[in-house]
TrEMBL record, chain A:
The gene is ihfB. This is Integration host factor subunit beta. This protein is one of the two subunits of integration host factor, a specific DNA-binding protein that functions in genetic recombination as well as in transcriptional and translational control. CDD domains: IHF_B. Signal peptide: none annotated. Belongs to the bacterial histone-like protein family. Heterodimer of an alpha and a beta chain. One of its GO terms (molecular function) is DNA binding. Coiled coil: none annotated. Keywords: DNA recombination, DNA-binding, Transcription, Transcription regulation, Translation regulation.
TrEMBL record, chain B:
Belongs to the bacterial histone-like protein family. GO terms for molecular function: DNA binding; structural constituent of chromatin. NCBIfam families: himA, PRK00285.1. GO terms for cellular component: cytosol. GO terms for biological process: DNA recombination; positive regulation of metabolic process; regulation of DNA-templated transcription; regulation of translation. This is Integration host factor subunit alpha. It comes from the Bacteria. The lineage of its organism: Bacteria, Pseudomonadati, Pseudomonadota, Alphaproteobacteria, Rhodospirillales. SUPFAM superfamilies: IHF-like DNA-binding proteins. It comes from Roseospira navarrensis. The keyword Aminoacyl-tRNA synthetase does not apply. PROSITE patterns: HISTONE_LIKE (PS00045). Keywords: DNA recombination, DNA-binding, Transcription, Transcription regulation, Translation regulation. Heterodimer of an alpha and a beta chain. This protein is one of the two subunits of integration host factor, a specific DNA-binding protein that functions in genetic recombination as well as in transcriptional and translational control.
């Protein structure tokens, strides 16, 4: 499922809405999550999962092809932890 | 870094501000987006959200685990886990912000 398929599906479930508005709604949701993470906030959606930012320390890496050492800067990485209900749904549990 | 936790209510408030729908309907739409994504994943589909990231389901085989408290060996059944791969754009957005906040540290 792609973002446009998701939009099409939500539009199908809500025939009273303009497709254009559904696009804005879906984009707003992901944009808000991204902005929250960029601020260093956590986003917790009970049952679905939680998005957070993990900090990775600087380290000395190696180019696997040449064996050359390279320094890798400290960085922040987005992380998602699956919620309990979704984890159960994936494993044949009852639906959400 | 502010370190707040954003929940459904702030996300549906953002939807409410963006589109001229009621707060109730905004909350319902957010829920329906999460439900549709969950159901696609439960069907084994990958959910790809451009400029955000992709969610996919990975099958894990059975392995022997250990109860860390008792040291007892317990089989861990084969199961499905969800993997989120952030897009390059999301990663760079987070890093740009982090560098501005901490001066690169």
């Amino acid at each position: 499922m792609t973002k446009s398929e998701l939009i099409a599906r939500i539009a199908e479930l809500n025939p009273h809405l303009y497709q254009r508005d559904v696009e804005r709604i879906v984009s707003t949701i992901f944009d808000e999550i991204a902005s929250a993470l960029a601020r260093g906030d956590r986003v917790e959606l009970r049952g679905f999962g939680a998005f957070s930012v993990k900090h990775r320390d600087a380290r000395v890496g190696r180019n696997p092809r040449t064996g050359e050492t390279v320094s890798v800067d400290a960085k922040a990485a987005p992380y998602f932890k699956t919620g309990k209900q979704l984890r159960e749904l994936l494993n044949g549990g009852e639906s959400v | 870094m502010s370190g707040q936790t954003i929940t459904r209510s702030q996300l549906s408030e953002a939807v409410y501000q963006e589109v001229g729908l009621s707060r109730n309907e905004s909350a319902d739409l957010l829920e329906s987006v999460l439900t549709e994504m969950s159901q696609a994943l439960a069907r084994g589909e990958t959910v790809k959200i451009s400029s955000f990231g992709s969610f996919s389901v990975r099958e894990k085989g059975q392995r022997i685990g250990r109860n860390p408290k008792t040291g007892e060996e317990v089989p861990i059944m084969p199961r499905k886990v969800l993997v989120f791969r952030p897009s390059q754009l999301l990663k760079s957005r987070i890093n740009t912000a982090a560098q501005e906040d901490h001066g690169g540290a």
